[in-house]
Write a structure and sequence with these properties.
Blueprint: E1 5-8, H1 15-18, E2 23-25, E3 44-48, E4 54-60, E5 66-72, H2 81-98, E6 103-108, E7 117-122, E8 125-130, H3 133-137, H4 139-150, E9 154-159, H5 163-166, E10 172-177, E11 184-188, E12 191-195, H6 210-215, E13 224-228, H7 234-241, E14 246-251, H8 254-266, E15 273-277, H9 280-289, E16 294-299, H10 311-327, E17 329-339, H11 346-359, E18 362-370, E19 389-397
Parallel strand pairs: 1-3, 8-9, 13-14, 13-16, 14-15, 16-17
Antiparallel strand pairs: 2-5, 3-4, 4-5, 6-7, 7-8, 9-10, 11-12, 17-19, 18-19
Helix pairs in contact: 2-4, 9-10, 10-11
Length: about 400
């Protein structure tokens, strides 16, 4: 096995790693002692403090702002097949303890000790996303380990995330085991959804919101529900299953709304679920102008703040969306609102929703808060792993 290259940090730049984080930024490297020039993207490295204390093993990418990622704090453990297999087995043990059916996020990057790797499991289909040069370099060993653990019928690589471009990696989708899966069926809370792992959003499904959708039952039977940014209808069909007589799903994608209709029919809910295609903001304004009102409004938009520089516009977008959602919510109705922007903290998001409520002349009661499910575990030392915020709020006339 090739000896890993040394990577020495500048003075006092080891504190975050000693606290349990795993990222090293390019300006934290002592390039006089350990030049980055000549190192290959993804190359294994052993990371040392400025004083020469070994901090562990990881991999480097001189082309990226996050210059290195620490994978193991044990200086005796180098990167390789045995370590990948061990980490994947630990991840699998957790999910098998948590879930009766094999539908979940199997690997969640840093939280599972595998920075740069995401794996979603759909029974005997695995959808793998590799976002860093280090994981790309280990790709063959990782796929071999997954095959050894699960013997899947199909492994699909969804390497089309723009994050790969920051690592100098190409965007590709490919089937590396089995044949192209087409549409598959995902069960959730008694419903069945047809999704496309190859062409759908992310890996085809959003497992992170599953527990929040299940929690919706705690707040009674809705009568008329609105699902904004519905994708294939997970929230909307959940509301219909709970008893809503009418559900309107809003999405900008005609393909997504066609899937909503097909999924509604599949679950015997077709006559109670309809689609409205358009921009979320425009659709909400239209519904308000038409005098439409709902006793349940669910807002689950894509991340409006993907980078720090998006913050100002993103905050305005979240506030505007929630204001418009409240405008079509009946007094006493339930607002379920989410943000998957890591750069928007939980307290700031709640404050923003409260500001939207004041502008809508509405008072809010916070009934519950949710985050991502336990198949997306949060690493206590890595705040970046906690991204999803979902609030369940009752809206009343202002007081």
């Amino acid at each position: 096995m090739t000896t890993p290259a040394p990577l020495r940090l500048n003075k006092d730049q080891d504190r975050r790693l000693l606290a349990g984080h795993c990222w090293v930024y390019s300006n934290e490297i002592d390039t006089q002692a350990t030049p980055l020039k000549g190192l290959e993207p993804g190359q294994p490295v052993q990371i040392f403090s400025h004083g020469g204390h070994p901090l562990g093993h990881g991999y480097v990418n001189p082309q990226s702002l996050i210059c290195a990622r620490l994978v193991t704090h044990d200086p005796r453990r180098s990167l390789g097949p045995a370590l990948w297999l061990e980490r994947l087995r630990q991840a699998l043990e957790l999910r098998e303890r948590l879930y009766d059916q094999p539908f979940y996020r199997l690997v969640y990057g840093e939280s599972d000790g595998l920075p740069g790797l995401v794996v979603d499991r759909y029974a005997d289909l695995l959808v793998v996303q590799i976002t860093t040069a280090g994981m790309e370099r280990a790709r063959t060993d990782l796929l071999t380990a997954l095959d050894q653990l699960l013997q899947p019928a199909c492994i699909l690589l969804r390497n089309d995330s723009p994050v790969r471009e920051l690592e100098g990696l190409p965007l590709t989708n490919e089937v590396v085991r089995g044949s192209e899966p087409g549409e598959i069926e995902v069960p959730e809370q008694g419903n069945l959804f047809r999704v496309s792992p190859l062409t759908g959003q992310k890996t085809g499904w959003f497992f992170d919101q599953a527990e929040n959708r299940a929690r919706l039952a705690r707040f009674g039977r809705p009568r008329r529900a609105l699902d904004v940014c519905s994708y294939v209808g997970a929230w909307g069909l959940r509301a219909a299953t709970l008893g809503a007589k009418e559900v309107v799903c809003v999405d900008s994608s005609a393909t997504a709304l066609a899937a909503v209709g097909a999924n509604a029919e599949r679950n015997g809910l077709l006559g109670r679920v309809s689609g409205l295609q358009g921009d979320a903001f425009d659709a909400l304004r239209q519904l308000k102008e038409e005098g439409e009102r709902f006793d349940l409004v669910m807002l689950d938009p894509p991340a409006f703040i993907k980078r720090r520089k998006d913050e100002r516009e993103g905050l305005q977008a979240y506030q505007r969306l929630n204001r418009l959602g409240l405008d079509v919510l009946e007094p006493g109705g339930l607002l379920v609102t989410s943000s998957c922007s890591f750069h928007l903290g939980r307290d700031d998001f709640l404050r923003l929703v409260q500001q939207a409520a004041r502008r809508a002349h509405v008072s809010l009661q916070l009934l519950a808060m949710g985050g991502q499910g336990p198949d997306h575990p949060v690493h206590p030392a890595i705040p970046e792993t906690a991204y999803l915020k979902t609030f369940f709020l009752r809206a009343l006339p202002g007081f």
